[in-house]
Amino acid sequence: MQLEKYTIDELNHQQAKKHQWRFNGVAADISNIDDVLKKLGVFNIAIPSWALGTGGTRFGRFSGGGEPRSLEEKIEDVGLIHALNKSSNAISLHIPWDIPKNAVAIKALAAQHGLHFDAVNSNTFQDQKDQKLSYKFGSLHHIDKAVRKQAIEHNIEVIKYGRQLESKAISVWLSDGSNFPGQLNFRKAFQNTLESLEEIYAALPDDWKIWVEYKPYEPNFYSTTIGDWGQSYLLANKLGAKASTLVDLGHHLQGTNIEQIVSLLLMEGKLAGFHFNDSKYGDDDLTVGSINPYQLFLIFNELVEGMDAKGMDHATSIGWMIDASHNVKDPIEDLLQSVQAIKIAYAQALLVDKTALVTAQNNNDVTLAQEILQQAYRTDVRPLVAEASLRNGGTLDPIGAFRKLNIRGNLIKERGLKTVATGL
Ligand SMILES: [Mn+2]
């Protein structure tokens, strides 16, 4: 299914008057409105191939209707998301869940939807059917060199698939860790991980990056070998310039000041990018902005400030990606909501009066500093996000359009009610 431009124009036309009135109200107060709209217009967030099917929990999975049955249909779904919001022009593949059998055809199909391929993701946290050795006790950190070798080879194979699709990065998340004290020698586990990563690093093409993701617990509950940003940063530093740290918002213990981590990684040139989601308790993979939108804004505030300080391009110098998966929502609606939440937080961060904030900080005017941040956060920027989408040929209201155009109903007609996407 591909959306026709006129259907989107027609929906926008119906809402044009109301939108214009709301937009004019907000825009009147923003001195750099053209700059804000321009930046919002080029800002894209990649969609992971595993988020297009209904997610499961360890207790089960309730599949929705019309789920994509193949990589081709997943690309089609991302194409629909991008047609609606004009902010999701890339797809991030997970290997082996989504192996491109014919890379040329897959690339052509993606291009037809205006999409390209973001980072590829390896998987050594599960055993696959035809796999010789088990990852039960870890992969890149394993005590057995043969297991490490198998995991290294898998990562190199993922790079090979990524090259065919013109991806430029591999992101590595390891579940390696231990469940009980005494199970592991921490130093040995770290050293093995480093040596394994060095071999993968050596196989990177010149223009590629490796992104090292961290997570404090789950599936292991005593230690994780790359458990926090310090451990990831240590590895990235030892590996070299092509390695950096990937921040997944759900991979922090409660109360962690993620915005401070982001600020320092950015300062050190070691912030690879993001896996966006939201959480209440742990790695909940909830819709971005659904629980703590203020935290998301504070993170974007650090990102904008930090990138501007280094003259970095907001849209392209960092990897922006969603990593979430739902068991109760329509996956496309969930992704549309997530992208909107990210763009809202980004727009708010662009509105922060930086000159006034620096002055307040230099004067230790704590009250004013808070006022300045919250002035931006409390601005209803939704008409700005809508206007940027409109100017790019997208919809003013992506979720409303998804429902009005009965996209899920049409996908069910095409694919059937009982479909199960590959993934978690
Ligand atoms: Mn992640």
Automatic annotation (TrEMBL):
Gene Ontology molecular function, alphabetical: isomerase activity; metal ion binding
Source organism of this protein record: Mucilaginibacter frigoritolerans
Segments forming domain Xylose isomerase-like TIM barrel: 100-285
Pfam entry (one): AP_endonuc_2
Key words of the record: Isomerase, Manganese, Metal-binding
Keyword Manganese found: yes
PANTHER family: L-RHAMNOSE ISOMERASE (PTHR30268:SF0)
Protein's UniProt name: L-rhamnose isomerase/sugar isomerase
Superkingdom to which the source organism belongs: Bacteria
